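Example 3.
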Amino acid sequence: DVVMTQTPPSLSVAIGQSVSISCKSSQSLVYSDGKTYLHWLLQSPGQSPKLLIYQVSNLGSGVPDRFSGTGSQKDFTLKISRVEAEDLGVYYCVQATHFPLTFGSGTKLEIK
Amino acid sequence: QVTLKESGPGMLQPSKTLSLTCSFSGFSLSTSGMVVSWIRQPSGKSLEWLAAIDWDGDKYYNPSLKSRLTVSKDTSNTQVFLKITSVDIADTATYYCARITTVAPFDYWGQGVMVTVSS
């Protein structure tokens, strides 16, 4: 299985600051069709996960453009500019290039 | 409006078979490219992908659990089912179903159903 390694495990940031979360995979996530199936989810406290970004850099529906994703091959980053209180929760990366789909261990974002 | 909702027994004993239902509306599983997936999450832990079924009836399983999993759908394409045989305490988790499309994966999730395996 593809191992997804997320860092850091937790973050504490003040409102208005910017943060980055790293996700590294044990194998390249470029599929045979040339696309990279690396996605980011946010699980707010007590809620189901929600799609933030799909295929590395595409914003999910209704997701503010404070969120952005970059990366390629095995190294990916989620950036949140100008953190807001509603951004708290656990962020997960997930790869869907290889079966089985695998998730990162999560990064917990707390607001100072 | 797309919605998904999981249902299940809440609690069951070890060695029994867990049966889960994902009831959804706002889309049809018969639409090309549509997939419904099952994911679970033990309390305080990360997510684990279990299985999926697509618009064509093709089924996909996590190899680590494949021998115990069966995913299926109803003929009206508004429900997806998951069965897990020989459950163990390690199967205690919140179980989610989620939609995957060719445009955006995991774009809609159910609220989750908590399942506890206990004697």
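The mean pLDDT of chain A is 97. Chain A has no helices and eleven strands.
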